[in-house]
Write a structure and sequence with these properties.
The protein has helices at about 1-20, 40-50, 65-80, 95-105, 130-145, 170-185, 200, 210-220, 240-255, 270-280, 290-305, 340-345, 350-365; strands at about 25-30, 55-60, 85, 110, 120-130, 155-160, 190, 235-240, 265, 285, 325-330, 335. With about 375 residues, it is an alpha/beta fold. It has 2 domains: about 1-130 and about 290-330, Response regulator (Rossmann fold, 3-Layer(aba) Sandwich), CATH 3.40.50.2300; about 130-290 and about 335-365, 3-Layer(aba) Sandwich (Rossmann fold), CATH 3.40.50.2300. α4 links the parallel β3 (about 85) and β4. Beta-D-glucopyranose binds next to loops.
Length: about 375
C-alpha cells in the first residue's frame, strides 16, 4: 500500500515537473472577442494551463472584435510588466505599432490561432492546420453530395467565409476551393449566385446576423427553397459555426426543415451548433480543440523561460510579410452527430452540465 502511494506521488511529481517551468513568467493574453463562444474557452484553458506551469496570467478580451480596444489591452499588458504576450488578433494587420512597443521592451509575442502580419515582434505561432479545416469541410460536402459519382446531374452550392482581415480565412478558402474547383470546372457543381471569389463570400466579423442577411438575399435572388417549384440548394459551405447559425436561421425562415436542409458545414463545435447537428439542421462542425493550442502555448512560454529550442517547429510555412514565424500546428477533426459524445463530452471538453443543458434543449425542441 505504502509502496503504491509512493509510486503515485512520484508519478504526480514527475507529471507536474514535466509541464511546469522553473522560471515563472508573467504572461499577458489578449483575446479578440467576447461575442464568439470559442474565445472564452481559449482564454479559460490558456489561463488554466499556464498557471499549472507556474506562470502568472492576465487575460484581456477585446469587446466584440474592436481593434482599438485590443490595442489598448495590449498596451496595458505591456505597461503592467508582462514578460510574454499571447495575442489572438482581432485583425491580422493593425497591431504592428503596438507590437513594436513590445519588441522595444524585449517582450516576445506569440501569435495565437490567427497569424499576425507585418512585424518581426512575433516570435512564434500556435495554430491549427487551417488549410486542412477548409479541406475537411469541402471533402465532407464532396462525399455527402457524391460529387465524384454525380454523372450528368449537378449540385448547387453557396459559400460563406469569415472576416477577410483574419488570416486563417485565406487558408480555409484555399483548402475548400482546392477541393471544389475541379467540380465547378467540370460543371458538376454550380454556384448560382456566381459568388465564389473570396472577396464576394467573406462575412464581416464572422457575424451570424450578416450571414443571415446574405443567405436571405441569396434565397430570394436564386429562388432557393424547399418546395418543388424552387431551385434546390444542395450545400452551404460555412466556414464556422457563427456563420452557419445565420445561414440556418434564414433557411428555416424560408421553410426548410431537417428533412430538406442542404448539407451545411461549420467549425468550432459551439454548443448552439451541437444542438443544430443533433437535431439535423447542421451536418457537421470541425472541432478545433483549443486545449491543444493552450498546451502548445505553454511549451513555447516554457521554452522562452528556459531559453530552450523547440525542435518540432514548422519554420517555413508561415511567412508574415517580414519573416517566417516558427509555428506549432495542431490537427483539426470532423465532428458529426455520431461523434459528439466521444469527442466533446467524454473528453471533458464540455462539462456534464453542458451535456444536460443540450439534452434539455433537444427535448424541449421536440415538444
Ligand atoms: C478561428 C475560428 C473561429 C473564427 C471566429 C478564426 O480565426 O480560427 O475557429 O470560428 O476565428 O471566431
Amino acid at each position: 500500500m505504502i509502496f503504491r502511494l509512493f509510486k503515485y506521488l512520484t508519478a504526480l511529481l514527475l507529471c507536474s515537473l514535466l509541464s511546469s517551468s522553473a522560471f515563472a513568467l508573467k504572461v499577458g493574453v489578449s483575446m479578440p472577442s467576447t461575442h464568439l463562444a470559442r474565445w472564452s474557452y481559449d482564454g479559460r484553458y490558456l489561463k488554466e494551463y499556464l498557471e499549472q506551469a507556474n506562470h502568472k496570467v492576465d487575460v484581456r478580451y477585446a469587446n466584440d472584435s474592436d481593434i482599438a480596444h485590443q490595442i489598448n489591452d495590449i498596451r496595458n499588458l505591456i505597461e503592467s510588466g508582462c514578460e510574454v504576450l499571447v495575442v489572438a488578433p482581432v485583425d491580422g494587420v493593425n497591431l504592428i505599432a503596438v507590437l513594436e512597443e513590445a519588441k522595444a521592451k524585449d517582450i516576445p509575442v506569440i501569435a495565437y490561432d490567427r497569424l499576425i502580419m507585418g512585424t518581426d515582434a512575433i516570435k512564434a505561432y500556435v495554430t491549427f492546420d487551417n488549410y486542412k479545416i477548409g479541406q475537411l469541410q469541402a471533402n465532407y460536402i464532396e462525399k455527402k453530395l457524391a460529387l465524384s459519382f454525380i454523372g450528368s446531374n449537378s449540385a448547387n452550392i453557396e459559400i460563406f467565409e469569415g472576416d477577410i482581415s483574419d488570416r486563417c480565412v485565406d487558408y480555409y478558402y484555399r483548402g475548400s476551393m482546392d477541393v471544389l474547383k475541379p467540380y465547378f470546372d467540370e460543371k458538376k457543381l454550380f454556384c448560382l449566385s456566381n459568388q465564389t471569389k473570396l472577396d464576394d463570400v467573406t462575412i464581416v466579423n464572422w457575424s451570424s446576423d450578416l450571414a443571415y442577411e446574405r443567405m436571405k438575399m441569396l434565397i430570394k435572388t436564386n429562388n432557393y427553397g424547399p418546395a418543388s417549384t424552387n431551385t434546390k440548394l444542395d450545400a452551404v459551405l460555412a466556414a464556422n459555426d457563427s456563420v452557419a447559425n445565420g445561414v440556418i436561421k434564414a433557411l428555416l425562415e424560408a421553410g426548410y426543415d431537417k428533412s430538406r436542409m442542404p448539407v451545411i458545414t461549420g467549425q468550432d463545435c459551439d454548443l448552439d451548433s451541437l444542438f443544430y447537428i443533433k437535431t439535423g439542421l447542421q451536418s457537421m462542425s470541425v472541432f478545433v480543440d483549443v486545449r491543444l493550442l493552450a498546451k502548445n502555448t505553454v511549451r513555447i512560454v516554457n521554452s522562452f523561460a528556459e531559453t530552450e529550442t523547440i525542435n518540432d517547429y514548422d519554420r517555413l510555412s508561415y511567412f508574415n510579410g517580414v519573416t517566417n514565424i516558427p509555428a506549432l500546428v495542431s490537427e483539426p477533426e470532423i465532428v458529426t452527430k455520431k461523434k459528439i459524445k466521444s469527442v466533446l463530452f467524454d473528453s471533458g471538453y464540455y462539462s456534464k452540465e453542458d451535456n444536460a443543458k443540450l439534452k434539455k434543449r433537444i427535448k424541449e425542441s421536440r415538444k
